[in-house]
TrEMBL record:
Pfam families referenced in this protein's UniProt entry, alphabetically: SWIM
Organism this protein belongs to: Phoenicopterus ruber ruber
Superkingdom in the source lineage: Eukaryota
Gene Ontology terms: cellular component: Shu complex
GO molecular function, one term: zinc ion binding
Single Gene Ontology BP annotation: double-strand break repair via homologous recombination
Name the UniProt record assigns to this protein: Zinc finger SWIM domain-containing protein 7
SWIM-type domain ranges (all copies): 76-114
The entry's keywords: Metal-binding, Zinc, Zinc-finger
Length: 140
């Protein structure tokens, strides 16, 4: 995980990945750790993973973004490489108030990576650019 999370969060995600690869489930102690470190984002993020709401969007050049279908039905674009999500909760809770490490959408991306639950979508460079520019237009 090439992210900017604290070491304890990185280690927890690595442990979740290891446990899931070995047993196909996440043990209770790691779920408790998830709730402790990520707070109220943990359970909704797990729900998004269960619903297979995370899609890894890749272009031929290797550029990658993630799209997460939120519980509201809106599609959010997440960038795990720079730890960013386009949802309002990320802007308010993470950036402005510093109350949380991340939003449920980015946590769902990290958990989907760890559990091998990402859907995959290969698009052209132009299509990926359109996805990224569509987010800018929504915000502008």
């Amino acid at each position: 995980m090439d992210s900017t999370l604290p070491a304890v969060a990185e280690e927890l995600l690595k442990e979740i990945k290891k446990a899931f690869q070995e047993t196909s489930h996440v043990p209770d102690d790691l779920l408790l750790g998830l709730k402790f470190i990520f707070g109220p984002s943990a359970v909704p993020a797990l729900d998004l993973v269960d619903q297979r709401s995370v899609t890894r969007v890749m272009s031929p050049s290797g550029r990658t973004a993630y799209q997460v279908l939120g519980s509201s039905g809106k599609l959010y674009t997440c960038y795990s490489s720079c730890h960013f999500c386009t949802c309002p909760a990320f802007g308010f809770t993470v950036l402005q108030k510093s109350e949380s490490l991340l939003c449920k959408h980015i946590l769902a991306v990290y958990l989907s990576q760890a559990m091998g639950a990402c859907q995959e979508l290969c698009v052209s460079e132009e299509q990926l650019t359109s996805i990224l520019l569509a987010e800018e237009e929504d915000e502008g």
